[in-house]
Write a structure and sequence with these properties.
The complex is a heterodimer. Chain A is an all-beta fold. Chain A is built from no helices and 11 strands. Chain B is 0% helix and 54% strand. Classes of the chains: A mainly beta, B mainly beta.
Chain lengths: 116, 114
């Protein structure tokens, strides 16, 4: 596998279910990100991890719970979601962002989530 | 605060036409980075280019070219001799200062008809 992979690609879940999204990067990067992409809205950054430490939580509801066990893997645990949480969830990775440098992010194909 | 405006929402061209996608950005930071990404129907965003605020040289890569103008806070993207495979949503993004957040524009849907 190369690049950034995400599983599952599609997920349908009820509002009372618990599920997890998985992201894996094979690029040797140290930063990972979760984004939400809803129809007609700009991409929204949800979480940022640098060297396995969460460095940003962009006011995301607690029904979304990220986990980063190592620099190559990132999870998004979902529970008691709402229909408005239906969206494309994109994972990305990059070299760790420094104060004076910024690196491009490489994205996975996303998980299309539908909450019924 | 940072902001990226992509005023065009949808563009449709016929194959082999040239097309320019506009991007206007706002930031108070003097150090910033600009990006373009392509999102084909498959979903993943594909990185196209990164440009930092100290490098105003225009860039050409095959049929793609970028025009960075600090005077007008614009970073426009031109596809020459468009092809059907260029059909996608194109996002311009900005990262400014020490903030790790990428601010994306709303995207431009480009349709290239045969």
């Amino acid at each position: 596998e190369t690049g950034v992979t995400q599983t599952p690609r599609h997920l349908v879940m009820g509002m009372t279910n618990k599920k997890s999204l998985k992201c894996e990067q094979h690029l040797g990067h140290n930063a990972m990100y979760w984004y939400k992409q809803s129809a007609k809205k700009p991409l929204e950054l949800m979480f940022v991890y640098n060297f396995k430490e969460q460095t940003e939580n962009n006011s995301v509801p607690s029904r979304f719970s990220p986990e980063c066990p190592n620099s190559s893997h990132l999870f998004l645990h979902l529970h008691t979601l709402q229909p408005e949480d239906s969206a494309l969830y994109l994972c990305a990775s990059s070299q760790a962002q420094g104060q004076l440098e910024s690196y491009e992010q490489y994205f996975g194909p996303g998980t299309r989530l539908t909450v019924t | 605060a940072q902001k990226v405006t992509q005023a065009q929402t949808e563009i449709s061209v016929v194959e082999k036409e040239d097309v320019t996608l506009d991007c206007v950005y706002e930031t108070r930071d003097t150090t910033y980075y600009l990006f373009w990404y392509k999102q084909p129907p498959s979903g993943e965003l594909v990185f196209l280019i990164r440009r930092n605020s100290f490098d105003e040289q225009n860039e050409i890569s095959g049929r793609y070219s970028w025009n960075f103008q600090k005077s007008t806070s614009s970073f426009n993207f031109t596809i020459t001799a468009s092809q059907v495979v260029d059909s996608a949503v194109y996002f311009c993004a900005l990262k400014a200062g020490a903030n790790s957040k990428l601010t994306f524009g709303k995207g431009i849907t480009l349709s290239v008809r045969p």
